[in-house]
Specification:
This is Inositol-1-monophosphatase. The protein is of the alpha+beta class. Helix content is about 35%, strand content about 30%. It folds into two domains: about 150 residues, Fructose-1,6-Bisphosphatase, subunit A, domain 1 (Fructose-1,6-Bisphosphatase, Chain A, domain 1, 2-Layer Sandwich); about 110 residues, D-Maltodextrin-Binding Protein, domain 2 (3-Layer(aba) Sandwich), CATH 3.40.190. Strands 3, 4, 5, 6, 7, 8, 9, 10 and 11 form a nine-stranded mixed β-sheet that branches. The protein starts with a helix and ends in a 9-residue tail after the last helix.
Length: about 270
């Protein structure tokens, strides 16, 4: 697992350096996905191509699942089936507008279990890294590694909760309705614009919890491992694993309180 993590850290750093070097003053969308506001830039694609090239140069037999390029390759070796899960820019709208919460996210699976995760929040100079069973760390240039632990013992009424919103208007309408029920019952809400960065904020104790509908596997694969290795719990509603219908993350105790607040609101529906 250390080898996987070291390679993921190296690639995420190189990808972040490339994005900073090549980002124009105002990146433009080259296409859209689920709606006109769900954008892709040329650098999303270029960054994923760089990451894929570096992975395959080091490990040509591995599978790669990327947000932009889908799934390619993969053979089973003595290590099992290894798959890399890549989001080249999580928080593309932030990237376009020059806001700091965007990141390169890379996770590694072996036989379906995530064993390493790296989230490089490039504008902040913060790289979050975790290995299965090895804990989570925040790496900053020139500083010693910081061991991460999520906040514990925080009641729902005192919790700072991060969330996000989908791109389709009918989904946003429901999310606003759900949020109206959540806001009076927590300390406050934060909306950063990157699922991976938000999960790392849970790990670092910068927020107490997180929930969002519509996140994809590449959004939460690496950040989810960082959060769980920092002591948080991650999952969906009704005991299901985290999934695109809903992802929740918080320390045990708060996780259950947040879950029980959200479940009767039917947050998995669209308007």
């Amino acid at each position: 697992m250390t080898d996987f993590l070291d390679l993921a850290v190296s690639i995420a750093r190189e990808a972040g350096q490339m994005l900073i070097a090549k980002r124009p003053a105002r990146p433009e969308a080259v296409s859209t996905k689920s709606s006109a506001t769900d954008v892709v830039t040329a650098l999303d694609r270029a960054c994923e191509e760089l990451i894929r090239a570096r992975i395959l140069a080091a490990r040509p037999g591995d599978a790669i699942l990327g947000e932009e390029g889908g799934e390619t390759g993969g053979v089973t070796s003595g290590e099992g089936r290894v798959r890399w899960v890549v989001d080249p820019i999580d928080g593309t709208v932030n990237f376009m507008y020059g806001l700091p919460d965007w990141c390169v996210s890379i996770a590694v699976e072996v036989d379906g279990e995530i064993v390493a995760g790296v989230v490089n929040v490039v504008p902040r100079g913060e790289l979050f890294a975790a290995a299965r069973g090895g804990g989570a760390e925040l790496l900053r240039e020139g500083l010693p590694a910081e061991r991460l632990r999520c906040n514990t013992g925080v009641p729902l009424a005192g919790a700072l909760i991060a969330t996000g919103f989908g791109y389709r208007p009918e989904r946003r309408a429901v999310q606003a309705e759900v949020l109206a029920h959540v806001v009076p019952r927590v300390r406050d809400i934060r909306r950063g614009g990157s699922c991976a960065a938000d999960l790392c904020s849970v790990a670092a104790g910068r927020v107490d919890g997180y929930y969002e509908r519509g996140t994809e596997y590449w959004d939460f694969a690496a950040g989810g491992l960082v959060a769980t290795e920092a002591g948080a719990r991650i999952g969906g509603l009704g005991g299901r694993p985290c999934n695109p219908e809903l992802t929740l993350c918080a320390a045990p105790g708060l996780f259950e309180e947040l879950h029980d607040l959200l479940e009767p609101l039917d947050p998995e529906r669209d308007g």
